[in-house]
Hints:
By secondary structure, this protein is of the alpha/beta class.
Amino acid sequence: MIDHKKFIDVAYREALKAFGKDEVPVGAVVVKGGIVISKAHNQRIVKKNALYHAEVLAIERACKKIGTYRLDGFSIYVTLEPCLMCVGAILQARIKEVVFCSKNEKEGAIVSKYTVLDDKKLSQRADYLFIPDERCSGLLREFFKRKR
Length: 148
């Protein structure tokens, strides 16, 4: 049985790092066979790069580590439902499963705004699982509350 909480905890710790850098607090972890392959957090502001979402960075690190862009059989855990760009990256990397802990009503591309992974016309597929975690959604609320 997969210990989802263990990997959600790692993603949450990554989100805390982003929070500490005044970035939108999102963390991502790429996992294969119960082992963390890579992890990352949002760095768009710090690195001045629109592409540096947690998911993209975690995927890039995993690809470098294993030496291929094909992450067949891998899972990604994310503290916030991925956006269109990140779902695209997940599909291109051939990740088999996305686990996320907070819905993204404004930009979520899995269940909230769009349902990309349910589109049967796509050549790549990924399963998904929403496991609500109050720590993740609470951290996001606190971040945006401070910004207002």
